[in-house]
Automatic annotation (TrEMBL):
Species of the source: Psilocybe cubensis (Psychedelic mushroom)
Source organism, top-level taxon: Eukaryota
Sorted UniProt keywords: Guanine-nucleotide releasing factor, Repeat
Keyword Acyltransferase found: no
Record domain RCC1-like: where: 30-421
GO terms for MF: guanyl-nucleotide exchange factor activity
Name of the molecule in the record: RCC1-like domain-containing protein
RCC repeats mapped onto the chain: 132-191, 192-248, 249-309, 310-372, 373-426
PANTHER family for the chain: REGULATOR OF CHROMOSOME CONDENSATION
A cellular component term, taken from the record's GO annotations: cytoplasm
Length: 428
């Protein structure tokens, strides 16, 4: 009888995360931007800034020795975190201070934790297994200093479970997806619930956290999208703002909105924060029709939305090319605020026939991968995080990896605090 209770009988509304495709030849990590803390994972001889993608020679050697899987297996996915802090763990493959190359988190290896999703903020990290198990480590910070991890701990140096979900005979709630801001986490479950925790000073948790009880923010609590009955199918986060898509396809934003980054509009200074989840009217089902948002990525003051069709919308700060909007774009003709766009605007890419399949945001920079394997970059990157050589600012998408010709196919991208990491596949 006990064994039967642990069998999932009720169908999941949101599916468990599944392992990425096993590419052959394997995916090779390339890195660019600031590497002063070893965040590029390329060894002690690569701790400077790189303005163009640099192949990870260490990873190539591991692939040749079948360390990542038989038959020249490579890296499956990558997540770049925020500004590194030596007092706290780094990313899922954390960087050793002595060797500055990736190494596995042994405690997860020992428990047979098959990670398929990961998220990383400035000092907080999380991973989800193919069984929907969650592990979290690191520490949260508030404006005045450390908030700690949870339950009185200042730091959590090894991955641990932290979220208690419902468990009923034949129906065990699991984790489906995660997203991280600088100092907050969002978790989406198989039952379409959202949990948030971390720093809540800018309402990025979707609830009010009293100043004298900030530590309460480190306890996971549910996020309500208007009503208790409305369920979620997707979550996303910027540095200090958060998002969700509900089961009807409507998109919700909350948190810091000082430059319109939640996409919910900005009429006065009272809109500088969105305290509770609010619908983004420009991305409603009525506006998008049969299209829908499938990924949301945010930076410090801006946000990108990727649609199923491959279209991209942007909103927020626009003074350094963050929004893919040229200076003569029509939206600038009638806007009230000269430095930002408060509702999502459809943006264009150089090749309309090659739709975007993945987006990522850094602090003030962005990247996008297309179906054909092209990689674009734009925004501001003063430490080489654009991957465009000496070019430190681009207001329109610039090619980092081209679709036609060349030696590499871009498969994935992750923009961190001052660095970016891409996964490329050889065309040879």
């Amino acid at each position: 009888m006990q064994a039967t209770q642990h069998v999932q009988v009720v169908p999941y509304l949101n599916q468990l995360p599944s392992p990425p495709q096993h590419h052959r030849p394997g995916l090779v990590p390339f890195a660019w931007g600031a590497g002063n803390f070893g965040q590029l994972g390329m060894g002690a001889d690569a701790l400077g800034d790189f303005s163009k993608p640099k192949k990870n020679a260490w990873a190539i050697k591991q692939m040749e020795n079948d360390v990542f899987g038989d038959d020249n297996g490579g890296i499956e996915s990558v997540v770049a975190g925020g500004i590194p802090d030596r007092e706290n763990p780094g990313s899922f493959l954390s960087v050793d201070d002595l060797s500055a190359v990736p190494h596995p988190l042994q405690s997860l290896v020992d428990e047979g934790f098959r990670a398929v999703k990961a998220a990383s903020g400035d000092n907080i990290c999380a991973a989800v297994s193919d069984k929907g198990e969650l592990r979290v480590w690191g520490s949260f910070r508030a404006n005045e200093g450390s908030l700690g991890f949870s339950s009185g701990l200042r730091h959590q140096f090894k991955p641990v479970p932290i979220l208690e979900l419902s468990r009923r005979p034949g129906d065990f709630e699991r984790v489906s997806s995660i997203a991280a801001g600088d100092n907050h986490l969002l978790v989406l479950t198989t039952h379409r619930h959202i949990y948030s925790w971390g720093a809540g000073e800018d309402y990025e948790l979707g609830r009010r956290v009293l100043e004298r009880h900030k530590i309460h923010g480190t306890v996971p609590e549910k996020v309500i999208l208007g009503t208790q009955t409305r369920k979620a199918t997707l979550v996303g986060a910027g540095n200090f703002h958060s998002f969700a898509v509900d089961e009807t396809g409507d998109v919700w934003g909350w948190g810091l909105n000082s430059m319109g980054q939640t996409g919910t509009g900005y009429a006065s200074s009272e809109d500088s924060v969105v305290q509770l989840p609010k619908k983004i009217q420009r991305l409603s089902k009525q506006m998008l029709g049969n299209d829908s948002v499938i990924q949301i990525a945010g930076g410090y003051h801006h946000t990108l939305f990727l649609l199923k069709s491959g279209k991209v919308y942007s909103c927020g700060r626009s003074d350094s090319g963050q929004l893919v909007l040229p200076a003569d774009h029509p939206t600038f003709n009638d806007r009230t605020h000269p430095d930002f766009v408060s509702e999502p605007v459809l943006v264009s890419f150089p090749d309309p026939g090659d739709p975007v399949v993945q987006i990522s945001c850094g602090v003030h920079n962005n990247s996008a991968v297309t179906r054909g394997g092209a990689l674009y970059s734009w925004g501001q990157g003063i430490q080489g995080e654009l991957g465009l050589g000496d070019k430190k600012e681009a207001e329109t998408p610039q090619l980092v990896v081209r679709k036609d010709g060349g030696s590499w196919f871009a498969a994935a991208i992750s923009c961190g605090g001052q660095h970016s990491i891409g996964l490329f596949r050889s065309k040879k």
